[in-house]
Amino acid sequence: MNNNSEQLHNRLQWKMLLLTMFCYLFFYTGRHNFGWAAKELSQALQVSYEKIGWVSFAMLIGYALGQLINGNLADRCSPKHMITAGGLLSAAANIMISFSDSFTMILLLWTFNGYFQSMAWASGSRIIANWWPPRQRGLAYGMYTMAAGTSSIITYLCSILLVQDSWRNLFRIPVLFMAGACIIFFLLVKNKPDQATDTGMAEAPKGNWKQSYLIALANKRFLIVCLSIGFQSMARYGLVFWIPLYFLSKSNTDVWISLLLPIGMATGAISFGFISDRLFRSDSIRSIALGMSLCATVSFALFLFPMHQPFLIGLFVFLAGFFAYGPQANFWPLSPALLGQAHVGTGTGIMNMCAYLFAALGEPLMGKLIDHTGNKGIIFLAVAIIALLSAVTILLTRLVKITLHTETPPIQTLETINS
What we know:
The longest helix has 30 residues, at 344-373. The protein contains 21 helices and no strands. The chain is an all-alpha fold.
């Protein structure tokens, strides 16, 4: 590849990454808005917080099942078409919810919304894998994960401004940004380089769709990684969904402290890419274990020592978000590392399915804990225990012999996994 074509490719790969990040920047407006509506929905529909938790459970189950399907489809279909369709359908489902007064209808629509939302993440990962070589994917995935974390900031900010108005507007206004971003993304993004031979990014053979699932499910280390990200996501969603309720029960001033949670998450996402690459020399396993252990420590401190100074509680909420979400950036490169280039979408989809299946199981559990104890701060104890399980689980990959099924050479991450 000559200098001109290399420079062109470098510009294009950054453009595709930034476009994918821009699109996903608004995706959480279509699902992280629900926690902010929980209090008013519980009152308006006259249902318990446990039932509200089951609605969130239904969305996450729809998302998890969608990941299992759409991750594989992203390896075979057009990722940009899948992302655009998912975003527009999610916006439509949200708007329909805003006009509903039926618990059953909201439950059904929110379940479908989970499936629509699942069409984006693995598809975006597929685009990044098409454009970015293995040695640069740590940075690319870190920035992609940061976009997701920043999406929470946007959603929280919109929700804080709208929550005092009506719960219905939480499902109407923010998703319009998502719909607009999807249209811009569709018009400008390219799924992969036009000339693979000129860029050195030849596309890996796709193979049979069943084979992709079998390769992933036969890899013991990959399955352990899936279990660990499951606990990580359960801890993360325990904070994302229930912290708004925790602060809404206090005062209007305290509500703004909750914004530090997604800010911490976004900061953690980009930071853990550097932590893994620089501090641990691309050892994702050690980076994840450290992050989740610190998440457990911070969450336990929030439960054990209720804080009343805004600065101090804000700092700990920021750190909880930083360590709960940051390690997720280290999970995604493990999919191509363990399964190979041809199965990036499938692997990412299975990982995300596990993540959201666990998160779904946690939602009604958290709601029941709050109903039973009458203490909304109990979420911090639950998150601490779950985060510790994630840290312990990821370390089990050291005990399992590597099983690599790939058409491409293993990348650096695998060398460090074996150490």
